[in-house]
């Protein structure tokens, strides 16, 4: 009894100690888990809120009246173009073909408007405040995807063919996952915001490039709360939805694949928070406590599905428990040693008597149930001996029964453990499953209903269990057929959908119907048939299938109707699509080329080696010198004739591999037209040069005798003054005037031949300054007053030609002024895409039937002798204005004055060789 008592004391000490250790470890783990989950949720929530605050800021800015007005003006300007899409494509090609560092005048115009300046100031303010680029760039497009305002040079001019633009238009807000932004040179999150007018109509899209540093600095600047401040092994990682590293407190490579760090069950469940213990990922890492939090967004920002991980090494966080364990083991060992010592002393006093008892016990242990011991003494040992003998008798009787019972108990225990393990596995799987799992008893009532079923159908477990299944999830129109089929199933366990996977309609608690994928199994339980169903909501899959089918149908229709050849090659360089236009262009039917290498079909033999070399790089990277560009190359037909084509290639990622889509246009006729055009241009340039040389020769040859005539008339007048009568002097004076008129006429012809043809360097011209210089040049008399408006705009033009236009119009107004107090007004009207300038005077005016005549060369309304006029000035004005993309007109009333109007485009226009405009 003493020994037993001591043993109990030792056992109790150990039990209490290890119970304390186990309880302490569990409590500490729960505390660490709870604190880690709270910290992770707070950090992820702060990240989501930070992104949303930037979104909200620019959503508010998208309603700015000045921004809306700028975009709507652009929309109206585009709608007035004859071929808007051709213009956008041409400008986009010029934009992308310019060097990366090149800023064209057209780009400068977009970057220098008031809205762009305001946005740039906003970006610069945040950069000064935080010390880094918070926003890489911000730009806005019109409803056709073309840039309207921008803070810097973007990669493209046109964006309506990009996924982010289309999603922002459809959804109102679209946020792209982290990627490298080539325009601003940073890793960023791209935010697309739809811009509507005051009535909710779509007018454009704003794109905001948010620096990823805005997110990572939240983790960098994080001050760890208690109890984590002293933890050396605590590490945070931020991953994208597909497991690429955005940031880690350990050394890492940006966007490296870290998907192996996220267990499959976490990805499958997509729960907001998941906590578990696992082995560390690195060879030198031990066991870790890991917390995963999924981004859930904030308000109308739905989040990017990012994962925040917090890891602790368990060796550090459970260190207090380890120290406690060592103390308890030490104390327990001391107690055990003391008990052993006492036991030895007692054993010596009773060892003789107990030895016989021990020997008898050994015999019984060997199976000799007839073993007995003498029980002569009346002390405790004697009582123990007699009790032992009775026990041996009873043991002999019950041995057989005991063996049978032990086997029965062991079998039952094993079955109960197996059943418990099976139930635990089922509960774990059904709770983690994303599909609804439910069970129906032999009466057709719901007997099991997992968490996914609650989410999918809207019924809680308590609401669903015990209810007839047909009145819970089966649409009313199918219930009669369902009850009929179930009547057969409850007897036989068979039915048309048992053991199959089918697609059917189901109904939610709120009455809405939706498609599900249903798998049903029959189980026999306590003599009755039950059914287990697994249901998956396939609404999204159906929508995607319909969208894919519609997209494929559109693609087939477009490719069949297209006049250009459309083809696709797979990652092995073999043709996987070949439309009807390709059949006509190259002479190969579809079934003859599908599956064959492209380079053996349409690439001339001399280029095949280069094609294969370039394709080897493309199949790995999806990049190449022709990808995303339109180029002119040579192709070959089935009959081996070569011809020129215009080729556009796009790279697409399909099932993890790069494929290429090519669009080819036969440009044989265009090449002929271009060759003819080049020939005509060369002839025109040669003729222009000859005409220019001729004009100078004529000018020189005619001006010399005219100067001689004028000089001779002057000498005669001076030398023969005493011999000439009044009529003679008048005739010589008239001769001098006519010679000067002829001289001015020759100068006018030269100016007219040069007008609009010889171009200076275009620059931004301050119109008011040009007008003031023209007024100074003509030296007007004191009786003529000028009113020049202060709001005259700046325009892109050759300043010399601009001065010619105003100088001719102003000198005309001064020359023909007939009022004692003359007034000449210069102003401008905004006509949307153009500026309309005017020069108005209060002079004699003219009749309407002269309006066309005055712009014709050599035409005047007054005699040559009354006014020294060549009749060329207004012709020069008309020629310069029209060559720069504008128009000239006149309004006049007799004796009320005349107003000349001329327009110039707001956007810079370069006069082309053929007299057209290249904008």
What this model shows, in words?
The chain has 919 residues and is an alpha+beta fold. Strands 1, 2, 3, 4, 5 and 6 form a six-stranded antiparallel beta sheet that branches. Residues 862-868 and 911-919 have low confidence and may be disordered. The protein has 24 helices and 30 strands.
Name the features.
five-stranded antiparallel beta sheet, 919 residues, alpha+beta
State the assembly state of the protein chains: single chain
Tell me the β content: 15-25%
SS field, number of helical segments: 24
Report, as a whole number of angstroms, the end-to-end distance: 111 Å
| Gross geometry | elongated
> Which stretches of 5+ consecutive residues score pLDDT under 50?
862-868, 911-919
The count of β-strands is: 30
Mean model confidence by pLDDT = 80
The biggest beta sheet reads: 6 strands, antiparallel
Helix fraction?
40-55%
Radius of gyration computed on alpha carbons: 48 Å
Structural class: alpha+beta
């Amino acid at each position: 009894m003493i020994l037993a008592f001591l043993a109990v004391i030792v056992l109790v000490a150990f039990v209490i100690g290890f119970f304390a250790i186990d309880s302490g470890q569990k409590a500490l783990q729960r505390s660490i888990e709870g604190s880690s989950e709270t910290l992770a949720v707070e950090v992820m929530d702060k990240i989501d809120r930070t992104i949303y605050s930037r979104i909200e800021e620019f959503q508010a800015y998208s309603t700015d009246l000045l921004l809306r007005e700028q975009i709507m003006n652009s929309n109206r300007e585009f709608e007035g173009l004859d071929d808007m899409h051709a213009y956008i494509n041409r400008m986009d090609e010029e934009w992308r073909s310019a060097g990366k560092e090149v800023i064209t005048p057209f780009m400068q115009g977009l970057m220098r408007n008031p809205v762009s300046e305001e946005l740039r100031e906003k970006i610069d303010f945040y950069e000064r405040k935080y010390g880094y680029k918070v926003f890489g760039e911000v730009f806005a497009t019109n409803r056709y995807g073309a840039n309207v305002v921008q803070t810097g040079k973007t990669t493209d001019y046109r964006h309506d063919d990009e996924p982010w633009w289309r999603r922002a238009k459809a959804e109102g807000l679209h946020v792209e996952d982290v990627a490298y932004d080539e325009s601003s040179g940073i890793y960023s999150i791209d935010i697309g915001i739809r811009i509507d007018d005051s009535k909710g109509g779509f007018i454009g899209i704003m794109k905001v490039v948010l620096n990823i540093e805005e997110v990572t600095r939240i983790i960098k600047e994080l001050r760890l709360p208690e109890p984590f401040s002293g933890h050396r092994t605590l590490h945070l990682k931020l991953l994208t939805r597909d497991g690429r590293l955005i940031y880690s407190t350990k050394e890492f490579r940006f966007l490296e694949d870290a998907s192996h760090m996220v267990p499959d069950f976490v990805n499958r469940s997509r729960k907001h928070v998941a906590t578990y213990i696992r082995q560390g990922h690195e060879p030198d890492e031990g066991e870790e406590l890991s917390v995963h939090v999924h981004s859930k967004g904030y308000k109308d920002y739905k989040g990017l599905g990012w994962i925040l991980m917090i890891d602790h090494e368990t060796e550090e966080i459970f260190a207090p428990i380890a120290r406690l364990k060592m103390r308890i083991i030490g104390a327990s060992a001391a107690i055990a040693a003391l008990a052993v010592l006492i036991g030895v002393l007692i054993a010596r006093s009773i060892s003789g008597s107990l030895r016989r008892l021990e020997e008898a016990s050994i015999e019984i242990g060997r199976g000799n149930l007839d073993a007995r011991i003498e029980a002569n003494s009346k002390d405790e040992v004697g009582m123990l001996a007699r009790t032992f003998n009775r026990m041996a008798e009873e043991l002999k009787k019950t041995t057989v029964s005991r063996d049978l019972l032990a086997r029965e108990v062991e079998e039952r225990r094993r079955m109960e453990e197996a059943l418990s393990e099976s139930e635990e596995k089922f509960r774990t799987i059904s709770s983690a499953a994303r599909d609804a799992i439910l069970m129906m008893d032999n009466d057709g009532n719901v007997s099991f209903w997992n968490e996914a079923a609650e989410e999918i159908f809207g019924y809680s477990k308590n609401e669903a269990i015990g209810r007839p299944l047909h009145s819970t999830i089966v649409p009313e129109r199918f219930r009669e057929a369902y009850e009929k089929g179930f009547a057969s199933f409850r007897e036989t366990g068979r039915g048309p959908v048992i053991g199959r996977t089918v697609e059917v309609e189901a109904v939610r608690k709120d009455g809405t119907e939706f498609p599900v994928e249903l798998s049903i199994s029959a189980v026999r339980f306590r003599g009755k048939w039950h059914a287990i169903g697994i249901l998956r909501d396939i609404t999204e899959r159906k929508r995607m299938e319909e969208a894919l089918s519609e997209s494929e149908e559109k693609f087939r229709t477009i490719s069949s109707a297209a006049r250009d050849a459309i083809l696709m090659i797979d990652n092995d360089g073999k043709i996987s699509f070949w439309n009807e236009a390709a059949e006509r262009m190259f002479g190969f039917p579809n079934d003859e080329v599908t599956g064959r290498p492209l380079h053996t079909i349409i690439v001339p033999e001399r280029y095949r080696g280069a094609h294969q070399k370039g394709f080897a790089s493309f199949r790995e990277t999806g990049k190449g010198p022709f990808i995303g560009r339109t180029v002119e190359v040579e192709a070959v037909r089935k009959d081996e004739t070569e011809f020129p084509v215009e080729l556009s290639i796009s790279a697409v990622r399909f099932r993890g591999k790069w494929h290429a889509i090519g669009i080819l246009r036969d440009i044989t006729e265009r090449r002929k037209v271009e060759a003819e055009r080049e020939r005509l241009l060369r002839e025109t340039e040669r003729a222009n040069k000859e005409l220019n040389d001729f004009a100078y020769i004529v000018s020189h040859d005619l001006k010399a005798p005219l100067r001689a005539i004028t000089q001779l008339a002057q000498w005669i007048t001076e030398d023969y003054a005493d011999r000439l009568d009044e009529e003679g002097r008048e005739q010589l004076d008239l001769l001098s005037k006519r010679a000067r008129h002829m001289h001015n006429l020759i100068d006018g012809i030269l100016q007219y031949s040069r007008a609009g043809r010889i171009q200076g360097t275009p620059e931004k011209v301050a119109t008011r300054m040009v007008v003031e210089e023209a007024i100074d040049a003509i030296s007007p008399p004191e009786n003529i007053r000028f009113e020049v408006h202060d709001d005259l705009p700046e325009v892109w033009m050759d300043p010399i030609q601009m001065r010619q236009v105003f100088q001719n119009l102003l000198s005309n107004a001064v020359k023909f002024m007939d009022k004692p107090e003359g007034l000449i007004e210069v102003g401008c009207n905004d006509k949307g895409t153009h500026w309309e300038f005017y020069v108005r005077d209060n002079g004699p005016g003219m009749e309407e039937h002269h309006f066309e005549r005055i712009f014709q060369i050599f035409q005047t309304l007054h005699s040559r002798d009354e006014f020294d006029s060549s009749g060329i000035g207004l012709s020069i004005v008309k020629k310069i204005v029209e060559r720069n993309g504008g128009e000239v007109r006149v309004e006049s009333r007799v004796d009320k004055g005349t107003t000349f109007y001329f327009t110039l485009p707001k956007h810079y226009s370069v006069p082309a060789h053929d007299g057209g405009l290249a904008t």
